[in-house]
Amino acid sequence: MEECQRLGLTKFIGVSNFSSKKIEAQLAFSTIPPSVNQVEMNPAWQQRQLREFCKSKSIIVNVFSPLGAVGSCWGTNQVMNNEALKQIADAHGETVAQVCLRWIIEQGAIVIAKSFNKERLKENLDIFDWALTDHDYDRINQIPQHRMMPRDEYITPHGPFKTLEELWDE
């Protein structure tokens, strides 16, 4: 990477699924700090500690699986079927997906929601003319937290991560 930087080929780098601890380790030796960290985040996995850490280091949080990735092998319906989110959506005349996307934007993160459906693509952009209320935030903050992709396959007695807590710094 240093050679690429010296040649002017690299000015910014991004990381994916880096925890606070892993970013700290990377910052200790890298000449180019990460400008973005792409992580799983949604109202059912809010990543509060990591978001605050990234903010303190001027690292942008880019979100994947903002709606829970229903239908994928790692996905969950815990986001789209959440009763609190449904009630918030109904109160605003929006969809659960719009509530989730709006919540992410209000957290200061960026999101690119995957869809091949033209109507949903339009709907995903229709989140900027309303805002969540303090009451909405109280309800969202009470949603039980659950990581969709724990990554058990990275845990091994002879590898660098022997427990999920070590892998994710929890």
UniProtKB/TrEMBL annotation:
One protein family per Pfam: Aldo_ket_red
Superkingdom classification of source: Eukaryota
First and last residue of the signal peptide: none
InterPro entries: AKR, Aldo/ket_reductase_CS, NAD(P)_OxRdtase_dom_sf, NADP_OxRdtase_dom
GO MF annotation list: oxidoreductase activity
Ranges for domain NADP-dependent oxidoreductase: 1-143
Protein name as catalogued: NADP-dependent oxidoreductase domain-containing protein
Organism of this sequence: Citrus unshiu (Satsuma mandarin)
